[in-house]
Design brief:
Blueprint (H helix, E strand, L loop, with lengths): L2 H18 L4 H12 L4 H7 L6 H39 L17 H15 L3 E2 L5 E2 L1 H4 L19 E3 L2 E3 L5 H9 L4 E10 L11 E11 L4 H16 L5 E8 L2 E11 L4 E11 L1 H7 L7 E8 H9 L12 H4 L3
Helix pairs in contact: 1-4, 2-4, 5-10
The structure holds phenylalanine.
Length: 330
């Protein structure tokens, strides 16, 4: 076979090969080694130059060089193509307009929602918010509130003792005492917080719950003002057609005292939501307020009970189970 024929054969083999896998960079590189490598087919043809008659050698060299340059440039453009395809593929695989993955968002616990609503209502009519200790001494939780030593509320049955003279507060009324010890009247506060009672657990009572205490002390404070305020609260909380009743009651720290019930249309019965009354002068005496000048009213409402009525929840224990099926409804 003449050199010319051999060159023609290499050229067409190369073309067939490069066309059969134009986008595979590994195969292209194998091809480069096979044809253009140091021991490749072109190099082998150069090695046969010695056996070519001297007068044909210049022309043969020229043909071989042309072959080498052609193959090299065909290879270069094939590689360039592969690179471009690769880059295009990468940019195609990122779609910046794709919406993100939606993660489930938690909900606000119904107790927290109710607390926020209660706070908003009282803030809008001039009350400030205060907080106090959940662990307190017997003086602030009982004694200063005129709950004497023998009173049933101080029985071990109702109170969780942390240690001698340190109790988990049984109501937020302890903060009434702290507030009046620290500030001169007039004062107008609500006090949200957790309270603890060691009592029989049922659909409406749990060992832990939330209260919002209210305390208003000024020169002209009357029971009718207390009644009007709580009435207004109930209408904003439950709507204009709420069924509410005040019932005479007894608390050592208020005189007179009352309890407020809201009609529970789910259970067809009244549900007590708060205790209230006119601050007992004995309490004023304990904090050093002059009860001939200052008068006050106080109330303490149960937030779980209010949330049960508001959201038609049948059992107080739902609030503390953390069942996702319950929580997701709020
Ligand atoms: N502390 C009382 C209770 O927990 C409620 C209350 C507060 C009553 C303030 C009167 C005045 O039952």
């Amino acid at each position: 076979m003449s050199l010319k024929d051999k060159i023609g054969a290499v050229r067409s083999n190369f073309r067939t090969a490069i066309e059969s896998f134009p986008t595979d960079s590994i195969k292209l590189d194998e091809l480069r080694i096979r044809f253009l490598g140091r021991k490749g087919e072109i190099a082998q043809l150069f090695n046969t130059m010695g056996s070519i008659p001297a007068d044909e050698r210049a022309n043969a060299g020229k043909l071989l060089n042309e072959l080498k340059i052609d193959l090299q440039s065909a290879f270069d453009s094939a590689i360039k193509n592969v690179d471009q395809n690769q880059r295009k593929k990468e940019s195609d695989s990122v779609d910046y307009s794709l919406p993100g993955i939606e993660l489930p968002i938690g909900s606000i616990h119904p107790i927290e929602q109710t607390l926020t609503e209660v706070k908003d209502i009282f803030k809008s009519i001039g009350f400030s918010i205060a907080y106090g200790p959940e662990i307190d001494d017997e003086y602030h939780n009982f004694e200063a509130l005129n709950i004497p030593k023998h009173h049933p509320a101080r029985d071990m049955q109702d109170t969780f003792f942390v240690e001698d003279n340190a109790v988990l507060r049984t109501h937020t009324s302890n903060v009434q005492i702290h507030l009046m010890e620290n500030e001169e009247p007039p004062i107008r506060y609500i006090v949200p917080g957790r309270v603890y009672r060691n009592e029989a657990i049922s659909y409406k009572s749990f060992c832990l719950f939330h209260q919002v205490e209210g305390l208003y002390v000024d020169k002209n404070v009357s029971f009718s003002e207390l009644k009007g305020t709580l009435d207004y609260f109930a209408r904003r909380m439950f709507g204009e057609d709420v069924k509410i009743r005040f019932r005479p009651s007894y608390f050592p720290f208020t005189e007179p005292s009352a309890e407020v019930d809201i009609w529970n249309s789910e259970r067809n019965q009244w549900m007590e939501i708060l205790g209230c009354g006119i601050v007992n002068p004995k309490v004023f005496k304990n904090v050093g307020y002059d009860s001939t000048i200052w008068h006050g009213y106080a109330f303490g409402m149960g937030i779980e009970r209010i949330a049960m009525l508001k959201y038609k929840i049948q059992d107080i224990r739902h609030f503390y189970r953390n069942d996702i099926r319950f929580l997701e409804q709020f």
